[in-house]
Amino acid sequence: MTLLVLGLVLFFAPHLLPTFRPLRGRLVAALGGNENVYKAVHGAVVMTGLVLIVVGFGDYRAAGMIPVWTPPVWTQHLALTLMLPSFIVFAAMPPRPSLLRYRIKHPMLAGIKIWALAHLLANGDLGSIALFGSFLAFGVYDRISVKRRGLKVPDNPGGWTRADTISVIAGTLLWLAFLFGVHHWLIGVPVLPGVGA
Known about the structure:
It is a multi-pass membrane protein. By secondary structure, this protein is mainly α. It has eight helices and no strands.
């Protein structure tokens, strides 16, 4: 699990920097005061972390997952159900007039939290707890941080919009695609036994 843990650290550390403004400022200064250089380094570290997460989790699974607890069968059904609103919320991310965006405020963080919670409930091994627990903790922390920093929230469109309809349709189609094959193709684990294999 060493690669997985290292990947999580490299992935989340840069994402947490905006909540520590003095430290971020010192890092920018150390890079010559150039924001573009800072952003390039930030992106490189995040991408390295993401690659290590993928490789590390794959190695962990191949070596034999470490059980911590056995989730009840119903958690799998709950996770499957939770992923539908997660996809719909993710689909509401584009900056356009949307009631969903206005109500949720920060769709990406909401989608991450739902996704992480769903997978955390359905997986009881150590690697999954580390992976999805980290994403859930980050989502909660960053949402609180965003609220405290007073970042601009989406405007109220005054009602349901075309963008909301598109988000619901796109999110549902993505959910169905993952349900019937994409998850197995991408992750190597079928959502429904015998479907998409």
